[in-house]
Every structure is written in structure tokens, then in C-alpha cells.
Amino acid sequence: MAIPADLLNKMTLEEKIGQLTMASANQAVTGPVAPSDFSNSVREGRVGSLLNLWGREETQRAQRLAVEGSRLGIPLFVGADVIHGFETIHPIPLAEAAAFEPALWEETARDATAESAAAGVHLTFSPMIDIARDPRWGRIAEGAGEDPVVGSAFAAAKVRGFQGKGLAGMGTTAKHFVVYGAAAAGREYAETDVSQRTVAEIYLPPFRAAVEAGTTAIMPAFSTLAGIPMTAHRQLLVGVLREQWGFDGVVISDYNAITELMKHGVAADLADAAMLALRAGVDIDMMGFAYERGLPEALKRGTVTMAEIDAAVMRVLVLKDRLGLFDDPYRNGWTPLPSLAERRATARKAGARSLVLAQNRGDLLPLSPGIKRLAVIGPLADARAEMIGSWSAAGKGDDAVSPLTGLRAALPGVEITHVEGTGIASGEADFATAVAAARAADCVILCVGEAALMSGEAASRTSLDLPGRQGELVEAVSATGKPIIALLFCGRPVTIPSLVEKADALLICWFPGSEAGHAIADVLTGKVNPGGHLPVTWPRDLGQVPITYDARPTGRPKNPAEKYTSKYIDSPNSPQFAFGHGLSYSSFSVSDPRIDAGRTITVEADVTNESDREGTTTLFLFSHDPVASVSRPLLELKQFSSITLGPREKRTVRFELQRSDFAFPDEAMQMAVEPGEIEIHVGLSAARAQLRSGTFKLV
Ligand code: BGC
Questions:
Q1: Ligand 1, atom 8: nearest CA belongs to which residue?
Q2: Which of 81, 130, 147, 254 is the catalytic position?
């Protein structure tokens, strides 16, 4: 079955606007649809989709109201924020990005879809693909980091994983279009104002990749860009997204964002707000009810036309049709659900793949079998709910494995003492007990970092330091002289110069998900060889922010001997850890690149595992255009490849690039390829010293 013939003609204006209205099923709302009576609104055809509803029975009950209770029987669709898992929670997206493995990104999205589909969810408000370059902004946790090439690969993999072939899975909503991540001073919902070039080169590419991968929906950002709220940004939403890229899916507003156009100071009333959003191509009003209350008046004023309303309604009906809802409105659990054990195994694998070994002095890790007494210290040591991070959908903290539990299970013969020492952010502390435990142990595992909800939406910070008294805990434990393995939990880069100095080994764990403790134990014991790399440049100090690997050259590059050069007087320019940094228990070497510049430009490099242990690493391919009409970044990531090599194995990694990969917006903002010499750099991170380089002539 398809959309019933003539359906649009049968619809009243109220029913049409109903299709453009999405209501929350569980939030207290002030407006015509109160939580207790969303059922009436569904029956009256005043709501076409719901969010925040899941569960087989609950979703079917709501669907029955629409299909059997409403005049035209148009099915509802149900949307939810399935960001990194549904019931089984995977690592937060920033963590998963660290695996640099699109196949894994796809696999976890498939499991999340299977669980969501069983609970009656038809569409997710993800992937979140905002490039984030300011760790003060808490939502950096929800995306793939600072780089547009990584962001694009992540976007495409997630759309493929969630949606499945032929939309056999659930619909996706790539968000938040666009530049939300550049919120001024990292403050949530603040304005953004970046150059057109930066919008084109940095922020738009992941959205284009999502559109090319077939995302069913796009969500505009809450923010303004150079004064224009994205919810009303006709030039980008219509001009670029629909006209240039050919996106014919649905645009779903963010929560209450159309009504907020009044607060932004661009709409005088709801009719105005509704007009601005509809004319910018926003099809669905998520909460706020600006369309319900404002569109009839806008129509009367003649600021919108019935044809514009009809076009939006048709896009919503087509989405419902593509989701199979006209065929089977009670479509529940349509994707095969792997067993719980299989889903937990995937989460464990993803958790371990996301960990970044930032430091490992004296090869303290993997834990030596000689270690008999461990002190596991810190406020995150036995935390469970914190392990699943923000946006954890139906995930339960109680189902998560704490680091302590994971270690106890993996090391039955080791005597493990556990001391909190201090809270995550509290002023209370008992350093004496922590110090005593450290003294009595062979080695300390120090579990420090942020609480899960210190990142995510509405969680901006002005300090990136370890919260509370954790810095003092690090000092106190380190004074014992015992070897320290630090496990850092965080939804963003945290500034930790003192921890880097004091800890022998540092494992950046982010928020690893439901299987956190097991995944961490797998890496600490060496069962899994760590292979994560940082998807963000890690600052030493907040004062360096924004710091990214792809800075443009300056006329006065840093020279410590000369005052008038680009530097700080109180800090190195270099980050704590470079973009792409990540160690392994194996050591790898990379050959010089071999470049063959034909119609396709191929770059080959050999990566050799110099150790006797199988290991995984990522080879990055950067380029630099040394002379162009517009100053080009010193390094630009073009491609990356994650590889697993057996002991002493050497493998050739081959990258294929097209001429168009070297295009950039010229002075007139037209995409152009400028012939000339191009530098190619390959290596295991963006740290300059270890890159191997070559050049070729671009014709
Ligand atoms: C967030 C969106 C999310 C929506 C629905 C908003 O506050 O910005 O990312 O999809 O809520 O939960």
C-alpha cells in the first residue's frame, strides 16, 4: 500500500497542520496538548508524530488511536533520541569516533535500531554530526569531534547503520544543521558567527554526507548563524540543503525552536514564527505548537500559501510511507534482534575499541601478572550510571558494569582495595584512606573525571579541569610514589597537565557504555590491545581553545628566540595530545608515502607492526597546499584507515584520491581546484614530528 489516493484533498487545514505537529508523550507542556490528553489530540488528527514514547504496548496503543480513532486513520510515527544505543548503551559518540572504524560505527547503530524497533520507535533524532571545536560546549560528547572528514564518515556510517538497506531499519535525523558547535565561548544555545568559508569547509560536509547516505530527516540547530536563526535559515535550509544537495526528506525542528523564533527577535508573534520556519522548509514543529497556533493566521495574512503547507504535509506522508507505516502501522520489532548476550558483546567490543591509551611510561600496561595487590581509587571507580554518559535513551545505569566490577571479574587472583577518596564534584574528601590503600598496593588504578551529565546538552563548562577535589586526590596518591594507571572518564577533553605528569599510564575512557568495566578490564589486562586515537586535539589549558590540528599558517610562525612571533608567553602552542594521538601495546612504523598522480591520485604507505603482539592502529593521510589563492591549513585530513596487524606484519595501505578532493572555496567562494604542488603527509596522528611526507603535482 502507498499513501491513499486523494488523501491530501480529504484533509482539513487542522488535519494538515496536525501532520506537521510532533508532540512529546511524556513532558509536561504548556499548550493545547497536555500530557494527559495527547490521546485526544491524536484522535482529533492534531498530532502526526510523537517523541519520547517507547515500549511495544505504549506505541501500539498510541498508533491505534491514530489509525482506528482518527477520522482519516493516518498512522503516527514515533521518534526518539537514540544516540549511542537504546537499552544496551554503546560508548558516547565522541568515544566511538576514537575507534576510527566506520564498520563498528555501523554495527552499533544496527544493534541500537534492533532494540529501538522492538520498542516501537520508527525514527531516531540522530546522528548528531555537529563538528565541535570548543570543549567548553558539552555537546562535543555527542558528535565525532573536530574534523569534517571524520564527521562525514561517521555521519554516513551511522545513517547506513540505523536505516539499513532500503530503510529496513529506522529513519534518521541528522542534526543540528548547522554550526551549532561553534556556540560563542562554548556556551550552550549562544549565537554562532563563523565565516562562510568555515561553514562550507568545516561544518557543512558531514550533513552533505548524511544526505548522500540517504538520511530521512534533518534537524536545524537552535542557534543563530550571523544573526539568522537556523530554524528560519532559508538560504541554507532551502538554498543549500534542498536545492543544491537535492534533499527531499523531512526537516524536523528542534524542541520548541519555532516558537523560540520570537525570543530570537525575528518574529513578532506565532504566525510570524510559523511563517518563517515553513518558508525555510521546516516541515515538522517539534513541540512548541507554533504551527498549530500560528499557521492558520499566517494563511489568513497571506504570508504562507496552502501550496507551501501541502508540500510540507506531503513530505511527512512520504516519510511515513517510506517507513512502511501505511502498509503496517503496527510495525514493531521489524529488524532481527540479536540476543542480549550478542548485543552486550558488541557493546563490550565497541567500549574497548574507543579507549585511547594516551600514555604508557615504562610499559606499565598491560598489567603484569606480577601485580598481586591493586588499589582502585577515585569517585568513578565503582560508578555505573556515569558509565553510560548523557542521552542514554532506555539504558539503565544499574545495567552498566563499573570499572571496579570489571576488574574484579577479570583479576580473580588479585587483591583489590577500593577507596573513593572524594566525590566527582563535591568538597568532601578522605585522602588519608586513599593514600593508605595506595601504600599497601603494588599499583594504583585512579578513576577520575567528569560526571556523565557534565557534558551533553546544556552542560557547558568554563573550566576544563578535573572537577571538585580530584586534582588534590591525584597529588595525594602520587606522593606515595606508587605506579599510577589513570582512567579518565569524560565527555570532552579535560585539561590534565598534572595528571599527565603524575600518572605512568593514562587511558582516556570517555563514557564507555553499559559494558564499561569489562571493556576497560579487557584493555588493562591486555586481552584487547588498545587502538583508539583522539578525534579531537587535546588542549593543555583552556586558554588554548579553540585548538585544532588544521590551523592555517601565520606570517610569523613561532620562534622562541623572537618576540614578535605567534606564541603564548605562558604556555607552549602545542596541545597536550595531538589529534589522532593514541598508543598501543604494539609499536608501529610507517614508511614514506609512494604517490602516483594519475587521473586518480593513489598514495601508498607501508605500516609495520614492530612488535610480537597483534595490534590495531589508524593511518591518517593529510595534505597541504603550500601555495594557493587562499591560505590553506597546514594539515588537512583527507582519509584514514584503521588496520589490524599480526606480530611483525607489514601491510601496504592504499588510499585513492580524486582531483576534486583538493578543491576548496576560492576568493569568490566557488569550489575550485588549483593546480600546483601538493604535500602529502602520512602518520599515526597529526603530530608533525612523526609524519612521513612526499609531494606531487596536481594538474
Ligand atoms: C535537542 C535535540 C533533541 C531534542 C528532542 C533537544 O533539546 O537539542 O538534539 O533531539 O531535544 O529530545
A1: 254
A2: 254
Q: Poorest-confidence range of 54-63, 292-301, 351-360?
A: 54-63
Q: Who lines ligand 1 at CB under 6 A?
A: 51, 81, 125, 175, 254-255, 457
Contact 589, 607 (CB under 8 A): yes
Which of 29, 78, 81 has most ligand 1 atoms within 8 Å of its beta carbon, as the pocket-test mutant? 81
Domains of the chain: 7-322 (3.20.20.300), 341-544 (3.40.50.1700), 588-698 (2.60.40.10)
Say if residue 565's pLDDT is above 70.
yes
Distances (CA, A) of 288 to 27, 89, 255, 346, 578: 12, 30, 7, 38, 43
Q: Which of 177, 189, 457, 460 to mutate to test the pocket of ligand 1 (most atoms within 8 A of CB)?
A: 457
Residue of minimum CA distance from atom 7 in ligand 1: 255
Q: Whole-structure pTM over 0.90, yes or no?
A: yes
pLDDT digits (tens, 9 = 90+) for 545-557: 999 999 999 999 9
Confidence of residue 332 (pLDDT cuts 50, 70, 90): confident
CA distance 122 to 530: 35
> pLDDT category, 331, cuts 50, 70, 90?
confident
Can you give the pLDDT at residue 25? 85
Residue with cell 562550507: 200
Distance 81 CA to ligand 1 centre (A): 7
Going from the Cα of 6 to the center of ligand 1, the distance in angstroms, rounded, reads 34
DSSP codes of every residue in 419-472: E--B-SS-S-B-HHHHHHHHHTSSEEEEEEE--GGGSSTT---S--SPPTTHHH
How many residues in total does the chain contain? 699
pLDDT at residue 158, rounded to an integer = 99
- What cell numbers appear for 476 in the block? 595525594
248 is catalytic: no
